[in-house]
Batch of 3 targets.
Target 1
Amino acid sequence: MRINVTRSSMPDFEEFCREIRPLWDSHWLTNNGEKLLDLQSRLEAYLDVSHVSPFTNGHLALEALLEALDLEGEVITTPFTFASTTHALVRKGLTPVFCDIRESDYTLDPALLEGLITEKTCAILPVHVYGCLCDADAIQAVADRHGLKVIYDAAHAFGVSRNGVSAARLGLASMFSFHATKVYHTIEGGAVATESAELTQKLALVRNFGITGPDDVVSVGGNAKMNEFQAAMGLCNLRHVDGEIAARRHVHERYMDRLDGVGGLRLPPVQPGVKGNYAYFPVVFAGGRAVRDAVCEALDREGVYARKYFYPLVTDFECYRGRDGFDTSRLPVARRVSDGVATLPLYPGLADAEVDLICRVVREAVRNA
Ligand SMILES: *Cc1c(COP(=O)(O)O)cnc(C)c1O
C-alpha cells in the first residue's frame, strides 16, 4: 500500500450520522442553519477570537476578505506559499509585490518590508507557512508606521498560538482553510477570523449576494456560504482536533528523533513559545534540487509520496512567469528553500514502522546522492 503525504481525518461514522440526523427533520441545508451557527460560535471559542465567518472554502474566504476591505493597489506578500494566496490577490485586481522569506522559519522577512513599500502599497499579506507563525510584532510595527493593513493567510495555522495568543488574533484579520487535507477540516471549507464587527458584517454581504433582508440587496456580493453538511463535519472534527494534533505530534517527534544528525538535511523550524499544530514535516536539503529530487524518487520506489511543497515558487508558475514584478532575482532565500524542500508524510495514524521506513530511505538516499 502506498503511503500518501497526508490522509484526511474522519470522525466516527455513527457520530457523523447523529450530527446530520436533524437535517432530515428540518430540511434546512444551508443559509445560516443550526449547524453553521453552532460551529461558528464553537470556532470563535476554540480560536479565541470575537468573530469567525465561515465560508465554503478558504480561497473564497480570502478573496471575500480582500473585497470586504476594499483594497486597491499593491499588496506585499510571500512567494513561498500555495497558489491560492497569490491568485486571490490577482483575481481581486491587486498587484502582488513579493518579499523574500527568512531562513529561520520560512515566513516573510519583516526586515525587507520597508524597501518594498511604495505610495501604492495598501496591505501586507504574510503566510504562517507550515504553521510557523510570522513575526507579527515586527510586521505590525512596519504596517503601523506606513498606515497599511495586515491580513494573514493562516490556512496552515489552525490551533497554533504563541505565548498563549492565538494565531487568529494577529493582524486585522486571518483566513483559515478547512480543506480536507488540513489539520482541521469541514471537507471543503474556510473562515475569516477577526476582532472587527464591522468587517464581519461586510463579509456576510460578500458571502451571500449582498442580501440584508427579504426585499433588500445592498451590495454586489457573490455566494461562498458553508452548508450544513460541511458544518456538521466541522462540529464532529472539532471534538477530536486536540487528539489529532497530539497524534501528529507523536509522528513529528519520531521523525525528529530518527532524522537527527543526518548531514545536509534541515529539520522543521522550532519556534520559541509557539504551540504548534504539526501540520507538515518540511525538510530542506542543503544539496538543493538534485538531492531533494533523488530522495523523493527513492521514497516513491518504496511507495511513499513526499510532496515538493512549495516548489516551484508561485512566481515560477506558467501563469505568472515573466510577468512584470514576478521575477525571482530579489528572492534568493525563497528560491533556495523551494529548491531544497520536501514535505514528508504526516497524519494521525501514520504507523511508527512507516515513519521508520521513510527515515531509513531518506538517510540512504542522502548518503548516495
Ligand atoms: C489550503 C490553502 C489555501 C486555500 O484553502 P482552500 O480551503 O483549499 O480553498 C490558501 N493558502 C494556503 C497557504 C493553503 O495551504
Target 2
Amino acid sequence: MNKICNFFIFLVLITRTVSESYTPIVLWHGMVDTCCNEISMDMLVRHLKEALPGVHTVSLMIGNNTKEDLRNGFLMHPNEQIEIACSIVNSDPLLADGYNAIGVSQGSQLIRGLLQRCPGPRMKTLITMAGQHQGYYGIPFCDPLTIPRCDFIRKTLSRFAYLSSIQKQSTQATFWHDSLNEETYKHKNTYIAEINNERVINKTYITKLQSLENFVMIKYEKETMVIPKDSSWFEFYAPGQSTKILPLRESDLYISDRLGLKQMDQDGKLHFILAPWVHWEFDWTWYKKNVVDVFLK
Ligand SMILES: *[C@@H]1O[C@H](CO)[C@@H](O)[C@H](O)[C@H]1NC(C)=O
Ligand SMILES: *[C@@H]1O[C@H](CO)[C@@H](O)[C@H](O)[C@H]1NC(C)=O
C-alpha cells in the first residue's frame, strides 16, 4: 500500500516538475486569422508544446467563438480588445507567476498594448513576428517603391483614415501612420500614437516595457504586406517623407527615450531578428533554432 502511495506521489511530482519547468506562453493572432486556426496559430501552439513539453499556452480569442474572433480583428477597437485580453490573462491561475508572449502581425502591437496597459501577471519575454510597432503607411501588396500608383492610393486613404468614425470602426485604421503628416497622426490616431507615447508620456508604459527581460522583434525579409516592413523593428519613414527609413537609433522616439527603448537597448533587452520569409510564411526549424531555443527555454 505504502509503496503504491509513494509511487503515485512520485508520479505527481514528476508531472508537476515537467509542467512547471517552462514559462507559460500567451499568443495573439494576426488579421484574417483566429486563435485556433489549424494552419497558423494552432500549428504554432502544437510545435511549441512539442518543443517545450507540458508548457501551458493561451491563444487569445477575442470574442465568444472563432467567428467573432475573426470579425473583432477588423472591427473592434484595440482598446476594447486589450481589455478582453487583460481579463482572460488575469483570470487564468496558471499565468499568475508570469508568462512569455508571442504576437503575430497586428497581434504584435496588440499584445504590446496588453503589456503596457494590463495590470496583472508579469510578461517576461515578448516576441513579435512581423509586427507593426510604428503602424503602417500603405496597403498590403502595394509597395509605392515598385508600384508608383500605390503612393497615390495611400495618400487618398490618408484623407479618411483619421476621421473619428473610421478610427472607431476599423481596427486597421488605428495603425495608420501617415509620415507626411506626423502632427495629424500624433493627434488623430487613436491607438499606435497613444501606446508609443506620442502625445503624452505615460510613465507606466515605460515601466511596463522595461520590466521585460527580452523584447524580441522579428522582421520578415521578403515582407510585402507590412509597409514599410521596418515597422516590425520599430522603425519608420523619416518624418515628413515616405520613402527613406530612419533607423530606430536615430529617431526622436529613441533619442529622447520617450518610450524607454533606449534604456532597454543599453540593457541588452532589444533583439532585432530578420526572418527570411514573406508575411504568411513560417518555418518551424528556423523558428525553433533562432527563437524558441534562445528565448523560451
Ligand atoms: C459574447 O456574447 C455576448 C452575448 O451574445 C455579447 O454581448 C458579447 O458582446 C460577446 N463578446 C464579445 C467579446 O464579442
Ligand atoms: C497610463 O496608462 C495607464 C494604463 O493604461 C492608465 O491607467 C493611466 O491612466 C495612463 N496615464 C496617463 C497619464 O495617461
Target 3
Amino acid sequence: MKQNTDLNALFYSPVVSRLVPYVPGEQPQIDGLVKLNTNENPYPPSARVIAAIQWAAQQGLQLYPDPESTALRQTIAAHHGLAAQQVFLGNGSDEVLAHAFFAFFQQNCPLLMPDISYSFYQVYCRLYGIPVETVPLTDTLGLDVAAYARADGAAVAGVVIANPNAPTGVGLGLQQVERLLRLHPQRVVLVDEAYVDFGGDSALPLIARYPNLLVVHTLSKSRSLAGLRVGFACGQPHLIEALERVKNSFNSYPLDRLAIAGGVAAFEDLAYFGQTRRAVMSSREGLVLALEDLGFQVLPSKANFVFARHPQHDAAHVATALRARGVLVRHFKLPRIEQYLRISIGTPLQCDALVQALDSVLAALT
Ligand SMILES: *Cc1c(COP(=O)(O)O)cnc(C)c1O
C-alpha cells in the first residue's frame, strides 16, 4: 500500500516514526516448495500434542485461560529441575524477549550484543529506546567473551547473546557463558537458547548460582511448534517476578488454552522429542559433508541450520537461483555475512533436494 507520509507525520508518535520492524523469512503458499528459510522443524509436532489441543478445544473456549499458565509452568519447571517460580511463559519467545528487554535493559546506557546475532534484538532496542553497543564476533564468527569486559567501568545495561548464535549456528561453551556472567554481575545477561536442543550447552544449570542469568527457550524449533507460539524464560524468582509485572501490565493471557495444553503434551512426549531432534542433527551432519563436497565452507553448527559460503559464488545469486528451482534458503544482505546462506535442516528428502538444486545451480554459474 502506498504510504501517505503527510498523514504518517501527523498521527505517528516519534517512536513509531523511527521504528524499523523485524522482517521474518517469507512464508509463501506454493505447493512443493522446499522451505529451508525460517528454521522451522521439518517434522510435525508429536501426535500427543495434536490430541491434547483437540481435547482442550472441547473444554470451554468461552472461558479465559489460566493467566499464570500454571500447568505448563509446572511441567517445564519439573522437566528442567527448576521451581515453577523460576519459569515465565510468553506468546513465543519473541514476546518473552520483548518483556525482558523492557524489564531489564532500559537503563540509559548501552546494551551489549554481538554485531551479528538475532536481528530482533536491535528492533526491541529501537522500540524501547535502548542504546546498543555491538561487540564484533571474531574473524571466524565466534563470540569473543573478553571483548564484553568494560575495564573502564563504563556502565552497560546488560548483555544479550544467542547460544548457539543465529544466524551462524556457532555455539559457546558453558565456561565462556559463565565468564560473561561474571563480567557483569550487576546486570542481566540474557542467553537466548532457541536452538540449544540441537547440540548446544544450556546455561540452565547455572541459574542457581547466578542471580543475573536469564535463559530464554522456545517451543518453535526443537518441539516443532512454531505455529503454537510458546516461549519461556528461566531465572531466579526476582527476574521472573519482573517479567510477570511487565506481562500483567500488557496482556494477562498471552497463552491461550490450546497453547497451554499443547505445550504440556510436548514436554510429556520425551521419546518423540528425542527422535526428531536426533533426526535433525543427523541430517545436519550429512548436509555439512554434502555442502563441503560442493565447495562450500560451512561454520560448525549446533543448531537446526547451517551457515555456509562458497568462495566462488555470490550468495545472493545462489539464493535467487535456488528459489527459481523451488528451494528457499535465507540470505541476509548485511555487513560481514552477505556472502553466506543460512540453510535450515530439512528432512533427508528436503536436504537431498537442496543438494541437487545447488549442484545444478553451481554448474550453471561456472
Ligand atoms: C526463532 C528464534 C526466536 C523466536 O522464537 P519464537 O518462540 O517463535 O518467537 C528467538 N530467538 C532466536 C535466536 C530465534 O532464532
